[in-house]
Design goal:
Layout (H helix, E strand, L loop, with lengths): L1 H27 L12 E6 L2 E8 L16 E4 H24 L6 H28 L4
Antiparallel strand pairs: 1-2, 2-3
Helix pairs in contact: 2-3
Length: 138
């Protein structure tokens, strides 16, 4: 009987320590927390919502003081996806500026106003991406 009790207690202890370790591990993964293997990914479920993190350099870190700049960190996959789209739109906008520069007035002024409006809008979008998907601690 004593052997069964000891075995049961060991099994319970093992299960309890395993579940505590998993919970503690999941709590440490967020934007900006350290990771070891570049390119690895993990899924963390928080309040029923699954979030995918990838071990990489956060692309939005350079311009935002709220984002960890220290090498490879866990970064939300949505941060990476949205930031890549932002870079594509920025390139397209800059390509338009090259075209605007060869226009003559009044077309040049109208086109430049549209370009400037696009820059303002894109900057607001970048701020939203950084704050809602790339910021440290998310």
């Amino acid at each position: 009987m004593l052997k069964k009790s000891v075995a049961t207690l060991l099994a319970i202890g093992f299960l309890a320590s395993t579940s505590l370790t998993v919970g503690a591990h999941a709590a440490t993964i967020s934007n900006g927390s350290a990771c070891a293997k570049s390119g690895s990914s993990t899924i963390v479920k928080v309040k029923g919502v699954s979030k995918t993190y990838i071990c990489t350099i956060n692309p939005a870190a350079a311009g935002n003081p709220n984002i960890a700049k220290s090498g490879k960190t866990w970064t939300l996959k949505t941060c990476l996806t949205y930031y890549a789209q932002y870079k594509t739109y920025l390139k397209n906008l800059n390509d338009q500026k090259d075209l605007i520069n060869i226009l003559t007035e009044p077309d040049k002024s109208d086109a430049m106003k549209g370009y400037n409006d696009g820059v303002v809008s894109l900057n607001r979008t970048l701020a939203s991406i950084e704050n809602n998907h790339c910021k440290t601690g998310l």
